[in-house]
Amino acid sequence: MAKSVKDHILETLEDLEEKDLKKFKNKLCDREGEPKVPRGRVQKADAIDLVNLLVSYFTERGAAEVAIEVLRAINLNQEADELKNGTGKPTAFQAPSEKKMEEECRKTRFFFASTEVHFVDRHRSALIQRVTMVAPILDALLTKKYVSQEEYSLILEERTPASRMRALLTGPMVTCGKRGKDELCRILEQEQPILMEDLMGQ
């Protein structure tokens, strides 16, 4: 049976020495470009979890390209060449277009296909009650144009974190739909990793 791209990436990572795998993780977290993989999840991941993270953030073909890029960045050129040969010649990874993201939104790890409910909707009450630092989340959403300047200012006028999160979830996140909710989840993974890990496990 032919090996998949994931198989080749996993084989490469499992063959790395512990110090090289640590370098790989650090460089992956520090790489420029979107999307960003949360450092907390990367540092705790073993080789299998790391491959799954790469695929979930970059797609299978994009994961191979990113892995090759990171291997070269830490001077593991032989390993990068072997992975490239094993997976074919992947094209440079590009973030998916908005249309593609909309088409793929039901396939994200934040969407529960069995119940047709998004992670944000499923854990709405917990997010309102437990997210404590809303301003950095709004900053990121404003930068990515998921909230307008007016919405940003109005939400910050709310006095408590809970009321700010409630305003965010009942306003801009409704307008943005699943794509905006996916982005909110990615931001929360960076800003509130412990909370997200807890909720993802429920």
From TrEMBL:
Q: Which InterPro entries match?
A: CARD, CARD8/ASC/NALP1_CARD, DAPIN, DEATH-like_dom_sf, NLRP_Inflammasome
Record key words, sorted: Cytoplasm, Immunity, Inflammasome, Inflammatory response, Innate immunity
* Database matches in SMART domains: PYRIN (SM01289)
Record domain Pyrin: where: 1-89
Domain CARD positions? 112-202
A Pfam match is CARD
Presence of the UniProt keyword Iron in the record = no
Task: List localization entries.
Answer: Inflammasome
GO biological process annotation, one example: regulation of apoptotic process
Query: Matching PANTHER family, A to Z?
Result: APOPTOSIS-ASSOCIATED SPECK-LIKE PROTEIN CONTAINING A CARD, NACHT, LRR AND PYD DOMAINS-CONTAINING PROTEIN 1
The name this protein goes by in its record = PYD and CARD domain containing
Q: Which organism is it from?
A: Lepisosteus oculatus
Q: What is the lineage of its organism?
A: Eukaryota, Metazoa, Chordata, Craniata, Vertebrata
